[in-house]
């Protein structure tokens, strides 16, 4: 019913709900609390967010909210395709500074679970791409943080084919993680 694929960073998961296809199209449960709990994912989702990015190579990220408004995110694509990235910014983590990237698409019907303590961003690969994601804490403008998408400390291999990404003003002025500092430590997140 729910396929869960591990990634190189064990806390980041790729999920693929089952689809039932018929001549009309398909049906699938994109979130089922009991199935998630059976799989050990007990996150209490709080808010759903949707964004539309008109231009291909629009890049939103890298974002996180500082505690006590840190968010887990469950990301999927309604239309189009993105390259979705989670970067471990938990001080003291064995994978600190490492990133996981997955192509998510309406076609593939896959999702990425990005836990608290990770910065998140995505690059759209098609025009008019719509992304829908659940978050486990409410939005707080005061706790919202942006880190440079091309922070050299992460060396994320964005598939932008040399195109300059379309960025918000906030994201184009974002600091590196070294400049901003991380509010997360692995010890705090494990308790
Ligand atoms: C994220 C968010 C934004 N907003 C408002 C603030 C602002 O006026 C407008 C656009 O916000 P942003 O420019 O931050 O939107 P965006 O750049 O799409 O931000 C999102 O990027 C992805 C990668 C994430 O991981 C999300 O958590 C979020 O940070 O929407 C809310 O009201 N609630 C929210 O939860």
From TrEMBL:
Residues 165-191 are annotated as: Disordered. The keyword Oxidoreductase does not apply. Its EC number is 5.1.3.13. SUPFAM superfamilies: RmlC-like cupins. The keyword Isomerase applies. GO terms for cellular component: cytosol. It catalyses: dTDP-4-dehydro-6-deoxy-alpha-D-glucose = dTDP-4-dehydro-beta-L-rhamnose. Pathway: Carbohydrate biosynthesis; dTDP-L-rhamnose biosynthesis. GO terms for molecular function: dTDP-4-dehydrorhamnose 3,5-epimerase activity. The active site is at residues 63, 133. InterPro entries: RmlC-like (IPR000888), RmlC-like_jellyroll (IPR014710), RmlC_Cupin_sf (IPR011051). GO terms for biological process: dTDP-rhamnose biosynthetic process; polysaccharide biosynthetic process. Keywords: Isomerase. The record marks 139 as: Participates in a stacking interaction with the thymidine ring of dTDP-4-oxo-6-deoxyglucose. NCBIfam families: rmlC. Homodimer. Catalyzes the epimerization of the C3' and C5'positions of dTDP-6-deoxy-D-xylo-4-hexulose, forming dTDP-6-deoxy-L-lyxo-4-hexulose. PANTHER family: DTDP-6-DEOXY-D-GLUCOSE-3,5 EPIMERASE, THYMIDINE DIPHOSPHO-4-KETO-RHAMNOSE 3,5-EPIMERASE. Belongs to the dTDP-4-dehydrorhamnose 3,5-epimerase family. This is dTDP-4-dehydrorhamnose 3,5-epimerase. It comes from Pararhizobium mangrovi.
